[in-house]
Amino acid sequence: GATTNIQVAVRVRPFLPAEAGSKSCIEVLPGDDQADLSNGGGGGGQSRLTQGKSVRIGFHRHQAHHPHDGHTQGGGHSEGHTFTFDKCFSGHATQVEIYQTLVVPLLTACLDGYNATTLAYGQTGAGKTYTTLGPNLSGSAFLSQPTNGNEQLNSPEYDSVGILPRALRDIFIKLEQKRLSLNGSDGNSENEANDNPAANGEASELGIHPTKSPVPKSNKHQTSSNGENLPFHYQVKLQFLELYGEEVRDLLTAPDKAQPKIMIRDKNGDAEALGAVEIPVSSAQEAMVCLTRGMLRRVTGATSMNAESSRSHAIMSVIIEQTSRSFVEGEGKTLVAQRSKFNFVDLAGSERQKRTNAKGQRMKEGININKGLLILGNVISALASGEKGKFVPFRDSKLTRLLRGSLG
């Protein structure tokens, strides 16, 4: 069918250690147009399926006993409810597979000048922050430790890194490849070019191949005295906002400074957060340090369902500014400035008070969380309907106002 700008993917997380031994009530099913995507091959295909197009919930698999040979094999199952999505990932899917399938196409579009957004949505404890950042902010180590072989590819640390650190690394790799391609020799030493994986083509496959030096150490050559005459120049900035209740906070403001009051203003079909800082960064490592610092200031709290439940929505925005210059005889110089934004949104988990046993402030937080998620769902439903002229309630929530330029 026709592709749309909004796609919904479901990821089924595996059992936690405390849930070991439980019976699964959800199954990922392949689409009609899919080949066998199982990892195991042979007879255990369904149990190792990593991708599909639909999920079946509430089914019960029972065993079939063969009286002639005495063997027990997987039999049929009672019918459950089946739901179809753009993509479905089972608990066997890796972080690399999630990133390759869902994020790389968005990253490519963002580098071409389009705004892009990934929204991690689900019940509290479902693994939203894990998918976005990985466990314990493992992205910092992922970006800072070089490798000279494939040992990192097969390590648990590499597999667990979230989609945001991978995207940061690949953004700088692709921008540096473009700079070297368009600018040619702009004063960099030959040794720097030889050490740069982007120049050597070692990072051609996004999200898979690690690099000797994941990003250029600095882009200071772009801001030299003659930098404004180069054919291509780029700058990457970060913005990190938190929505706690209906209050917008800037997580990148220095802790010793007073927290500014963030105002939202509509501008050219997008939203601008007045008072929020945009920090320029020259490498993926530097960007990850900023985001890690911001994550440590984010509001979390314990509930009966999650010991470290996010109590706020977090919007991590990577702003990419690209400037291209060309000269045509008879027409003079042509300047093309391009600004795009990639939002990584880690939503607070939807929750039921009966299951979280939240009281007092925690219960108020849960009410605000569910209210914001409801409005976000209404906005996405209105956009996905495809009806021209249909009212989209962006202004009903600060979350949807901030994401207006990236959602619709």
Textual characterization of the structure:
With 408 residues, this protein is of the alpha+beta class. It has 12 helices and 16 strands. The chain has helices at 95-111, 128-133, 139-144, 156-160, 163-183, 190-195, 197-200, 284-295, 353-356, 361-385, 398-402, 404-407; strands at 9-11, 26-29, 51-57, 60-65, 72-78, 81-89, 116-120, 232-244, 247-250, 263-267, 270-274, 279-281, 300-301, 309-310, 313-328, 332-346. α5 (163-183) runs antiparallel to α8 (284-295). Residues 36-46, 70-74, 146-151, 189-195, 197-226 and 302-307 have low confidence and may be disordered.
What descriptors fit this protein?
408 residues; alpha+beta; six-stranded mixed sheet; four-stranded mixed sheet
Mean pLDDT: 75
Helix and strand content put the structural class at alpha+beta
Q: What level of helicity do the residues show?
A: 25-40%
Order of helices and strands: EEEEEEHEHHHHHHEEEEEHEEEEHHHH
Strand content: 25-35%
Count of discrete alpha- or pi-helical segments spanning 4 or more residues: 12
Shape: globular
Terminal CA distance: 21 Å
For the secondary structure, the number of strands is 16
Low-confidence stretches: 36-46, 70-74, 146-151, 189-195, 197-226, 302-307
The radius of gyration computed from the alpha-carbon positions, rounded to a whole number of angstroms, is 24 Å
